[in-house]
What we know:
Layout: E1 4-8, H1 13-24, E2 28-33, E3 52-56, E4 69-72, H2 79-82, H3 86-107, E5 110-116, H4 143-163, E6 167-172, E7 175-176, H5 187-196, E8 201-204, E9 210-212, E10 214-215, H6 216-228, E11 235-237, E12 242-244, H7 245-256, E13 262-265, H8 280-286, H9 294-312
Parallel strand pairs: 1-2, 1-4, 2-3, 4-5, 5-6, 6-11, 7-10, 8-13
Antiparallel strand pairs: 9-12
Helix pairs in contact: 1-6, 3-4, 5-7, 5-9, 7-9
Nicotinamide-adenine-dinucleotide is lined by residues 8-9, 11-15, 33-38, 58-60, 73-77, 92, 96, 114, 116, 172, 174-175.
Amino acid sequence: MTRRNLITGGAGFLGSHLVDRLMEAGEEVICLDNFYTGRKDNIRQWLGHPQFELIRHDVTEPIRLEIDRIWHLACPASPVHYQSNPIKTAKTSFLGTYNMLGLARRVGARLLLASTSEVYGDPEVHPQPESYRGCVNTIGIRSCYDEGKRIAETLCFDYQRMHGTEIRVMRIFNTYGPRMLPDDGRVVSNFIVQALQGLPLTLYGDGSQTRSFCYVDDLIEGMIRLMNGEHTGPINIGNPGEFTIRQLAEKVRERIQPSLELTTQPLPQDDPLQRQPVIDLARELLGWEPKVSLDEGLEPTIAYFRERMRADR
Ligand code: NAD
Ligand code: UDP
């Protein structure tokens, strides 16, 4: 029998790439989304396919389905979107994960949680191994997301301890690639969209803060290996190649329009100064490491936005 997968947030950036991979592997996929930041276009190619189903639903409400695996990705990931209704974001993380764990328990499904490097907050340990417990402000503008994901991880482990629910917890570091929304607000899409429009690139702060950028195909491969493997996690999945935000801006403008200006805007509250994953566990336990460098991954990402903006015109 083919495996029945539920992908929450399946119409979003990462979720839709996962839908593609599982559908191409001949599995059954139920894509569940409330379309807050997801788009039907991302999964349009599968509509009408006998092994694909789309459900408009909000994970803060319970749902009953017969499935074998839950890939729980539903949650806005960009600060602009998760901060626009922070109470809803906290509800999505807590109630959404609670409902999906309840479903997993009821039907004996395995659940993978898309957690985040934000559980490390503004880290005092660099780079960040899974054993680092983090430095998170409980009352700041990022807390709805960071603390939401921390309690979601807690819930997973309590369901495992209390009910024997099979869980996988993945800490995703900044990931980019085709299908990010032009107005997503995250840095890679912002810089590319600005450059394609001939606008100055907006550095928040002086641009010396760092991030480590993982290309979407690498990320999805790591996610599938974690779900299929025997290790619960938490496990970091990300690309250890670390860049300052200024370096990223320079790479983007050099590929699109080198004469563009870099302007500065205030650094948002609690914006982490540095971030880089230790991926020793992923290497050892999953035999996974990223293959696509930032230079390589920017090319298809820029090509995607170029095409999309042409089509939108
Ligand atoms: P995204 O915003 O593109 O996708 C999130 C999806 O979840 C969207 O389709 C949205 O409509 C849906 N959604 C949001 N709230 C929902 C709700 N209450 N009920 C049902 N659906 C809901 O973001 P993404 O980058 O694809 O991120 C996917 C997951 O991965 C998120 O859980 C995010 O926290 C996590 N993550 C992503 C990154 C990254 O760099 N992309 C990094 C760390 C963690
Ligand atoms: N950033 C920036 N300009 C932008 C958008 C973001 O300089 O137009 C910075 C942001 O302040 C942060 C980094 O880029 O330091 C990554 O931001 P993003 O929102 O992509 O991810 P996160 O902060 O959640 O890692």
